[in-house]
């Protein structure tokens, strides 16, 4: 049994955001972090390891410096890591990325009792598409927005968090789950983990490693294989400042009603 | 000369920074206000392998180097010097001498207790009349059959009322002066061990300081650490290493105070502009930066020399003296930058100033550091 976790290195948007003249993010000049939702996915996988002793394999697609992030995951407790990195994969949108990651997961080896964990969405693109597309391409069931996960043999029961409530779904392994921050609190790296993380294996899958997989078609990977076209990037205008009304008296209530009427809310 | 941290040291800093921001910063003011030992935080630090991180892997530790430990103390002390102190004492003053001087049985038993079993460590040298002049101790240890009988008391013992394992120094032969001092590993559960007065201090309110009393305390013969009569040497070697921890603690306090002050100065407006726009304030920050950089380099150099097994007594004393005095100056300036707000408990800088003071006193006062430094550079 394995837990395979897909992770992404993203720009740290809590710091200074740098934008290129063409409107795209200047990733090279920004600090990077592990995508926050992906950390919840890692924690879910490590929790399964705590409970069952299964192996945890972390996989990411990105440039060579993404290896640093993989070492952090190994220091948290992951057993192995895979960096999917090739010039041919550069510029991939969510469709192309999911093709490549699905091929990488097949190469790692997806067994009957495995679970693939992804974060709900990345804070740079905010699409929430890659996890679901990987599941489609692997032909396995998927449950998104996991806020609670229980595994009993090959049966996996997940509480999905929706805007207006929860939905509980049961499925069978192998399956893919996308995780949200309400699922858990990611653990810290441990000192023992840090001291040992550079002795654990990080395998690099380049184009040649994956090229024989039918999913790796030049027409469906990289910039050329990406159906998404970006016409323009811009910073949306800031929303106006909210208005605070304080007080529990009638005049405050009347003012509130008046404000809501002005905006045609009531 | 390489000024870069190793990849592991970098990750330790990142992890300890995250831990401190999430787990320590939110409770630091309350810990100080209520003088509460941060038990939950220390348990988490045990879980993460930070407590006892320098212990070799074969005895339950992570085998981290001295700079990793210094970085951990520094990061904790940016927000809570008490937590940094508890760690510095556990790692440097209790695990340290057992790693260095313990025999195989002692290491197997006590280093595992100090890591895997979550037992807190302490170091008991100071006595009411024997502070800087440690040789004037009156605590005695008399060999009777298969055990020593300890009598006397120790004061100002960090982790005193929470620790389970103590490295204790006592006279086995008073006539020999410093050569009559021996070191022992003493468990708080041993008969005749008791905790005396809990100290109320100016700062470090979360760090549990107490008097330790030995009344016919029975310590098994096999708990003699090193050879009989070698205790003073063990104490001095341990304090050499411990000074790196205190330098790291002082460095962290200084960094925390500077960060707080910069955040304040950028938003506090007087005369129509943030006070950070005044050159007077800017120059204060420039001086703080210089002192912190120098303190960091001295501290990291001493830690690196220790890890490499090279002489580091002079470097540890230099780092401790400079970093502690820098911390005192910087925290005092930090209060000044905050003005009246800095004098209140609404801002953390008054706590940092109170906490900084002890770094000039314990594990060798600034005056003792100058004795060590001048003795080393002039020759004795």
Structure, explained:
The complex is a heterodimer of chains A (266) and B (380). Helix content of chain A is 28%, strand content 24%. Chain A contains seven helices and eleven strands. Chain A has helices spanning 36-52, 67-76, 94-108, 130-138, 191-196, 207-210, 250-262, and strands spanning 2-7, 9-11, 32-34, 55-61, 80-84, 115-119, 142-152, 155-162, 165-172, 175-179, 202-205. In chain A, the strands form two sheets. Chain A has a nine-stranded mixed sheet with strand order 9-8-7-10-6-1-4-5-11, with helices on both faces. A two-stranded antiparallel ribbon of chain A has the order 2-3. In chain A, helix 2 links the parallel strand 4 and strand 5 (80-84). Chain B has helices spanning 7-34, 39-47, 66-79, 81-101, 104-113, 231-267, 279-307, 313-338, 349-359, 366-378; strands spanning 121-124, 140-144, 147-158, 165-171, 181-187, 193-198, 209-220, 224-225, 269-270, 273-274. In chain B, the strands form three sheets. Chain B has a four-stranded mixed sheet. The longest helix of chain B is centred in the middle third of the chain and has 37 residues, at 231-267. Chain B has 380 residues and is of the alpha+beta class. The A-B interface holds A 71-72, 75, 188-192, 194-195, 197-198 and B 7-8, 11-12, 14-15, 18-19, 47-50, 53, 57, 62-64, 68.
């Amino acid at each position: 049994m394995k837990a395979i976790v897909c992770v992404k290195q993203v720009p740290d948007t809590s710091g200074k955001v740098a934008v290129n003249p063409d409107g795209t993010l200047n990733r090279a000049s920004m600090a990077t972090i592990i995508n926050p939702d992906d950390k919840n996915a890692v924690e879910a996988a490590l929790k399964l390891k705590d409970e069952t002793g299964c192996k945890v394999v972390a996989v990411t697609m990105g440039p060579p410096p993404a290896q640093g992030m993989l070492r952090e995951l190994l220091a948290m407790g992951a057993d192995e890591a895979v960096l999917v990195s090739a010039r041919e994969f550069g510029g991939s949108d969510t469709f192309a990325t999911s093709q490549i990651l699905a091929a990488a997961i097949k190469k790692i080896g997806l067994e009957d009792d495995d679970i693939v964990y992804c974060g709900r969405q990345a804070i740079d693109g905010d699409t929430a598409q890659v996890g679901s597309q990987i599941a489609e391409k692997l032909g396995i069931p998927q449950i998104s927005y996991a806020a609670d996960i229980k595994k009993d043999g090959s049966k996996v029961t997940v509480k999905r968090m929706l805007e207006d409530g929860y939905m509980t779904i049961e499925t069978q392994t192998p399956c893919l789950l996308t995780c949200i921050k309400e699922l858990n609190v990611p653990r810290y790296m441990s000192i023992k983990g840090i001291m040992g993380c550079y002795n654990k294996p990080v395998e690099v899958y380049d184009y040649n490693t994956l090229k024989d997989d039918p999913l790796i078609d030049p027409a469906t990977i990289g910039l050329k294989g990406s159906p998404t076209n970006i016409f323009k990037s811009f910073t949306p205008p800031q929303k106006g400042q909210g208005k605070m009304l304080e007080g529990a008296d009638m005049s405050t209530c009347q003012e509130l009603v008046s404000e809501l009427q002005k905006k045609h809310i009531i | 000369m390489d000024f870069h941290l190793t990849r592991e040291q970098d990750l330790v800093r990142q992890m300890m920074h995250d831990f401190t921001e999430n787990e320590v910063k939110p409770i630091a003011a309350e810990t100080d206000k209520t003088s509460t030992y941060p038990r939950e935080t220390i348990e988490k630090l045990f879980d993460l392998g930070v407590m006892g991180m320098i212990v070799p892997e074969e005895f339950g530790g992570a085998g981290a180097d001295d700079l990793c430990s210094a970085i951990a103390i520094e990061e904790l002390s940016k927000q809570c010097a008490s937590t940094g102190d508890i760690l510095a004492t556990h790692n440097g003053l209790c695990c340290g001498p057992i790693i260095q001087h313990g025999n195989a049985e002692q290491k197997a038993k006590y280093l595992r207790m100090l890591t895997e079993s979550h037992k807190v460590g302490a170091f008991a040298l100071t006595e009411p009349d024997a502070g800087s002049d440690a040789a004037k101790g009156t605590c005695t240890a008399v060999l009777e059959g298969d055990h020593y009988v300890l009598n006397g008391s120790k004061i100002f013992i960090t982790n005193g009322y929470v620790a389970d394992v103590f490295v204790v120094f006592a006279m086995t032969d008073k006539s020999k002066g410093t050569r009559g001092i021996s070191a022992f590993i003493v468990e708080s559960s041993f008969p005749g061990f008791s905790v005396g007065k809990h100290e109320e201090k100016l700062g470090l309110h979360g760090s549990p300081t107490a008097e330790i009393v030995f009344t016919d305390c029975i310590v098994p013969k096999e708990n003699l650490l090193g050879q009989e009569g070698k205790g003073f040497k063990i104490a001095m070697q341990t304090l050499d290493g411990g000074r790196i921890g205190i330098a790291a603690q002082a460095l962290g306090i200084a960094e925390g105070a500077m960060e707080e002050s910069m955040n304040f100065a950028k938003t506090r407006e007087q005369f129509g502009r943030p006070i950070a726009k005044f050159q007077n304030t800017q120059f204060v920050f420039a001086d703080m930066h210089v002192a912190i950089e120098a303190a960091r380099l001295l501290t990291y150099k001493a830690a690196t020399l220790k890890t490499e097994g090279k002489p580091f007594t002079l470097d540890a004393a230099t780092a401790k003296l400079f970093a502690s005095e820098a911390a005192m100056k910087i925290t005092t300036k930090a209060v000044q930058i905050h003005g009246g707000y800095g004098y209140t408990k609404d801002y953390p800088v008054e706590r940092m100033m109170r906490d900084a003071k002890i770094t000039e006193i314990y594990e060798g006062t600034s005056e003792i550091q100058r004795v060590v430094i001048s003795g080393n550079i002039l020759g004795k």
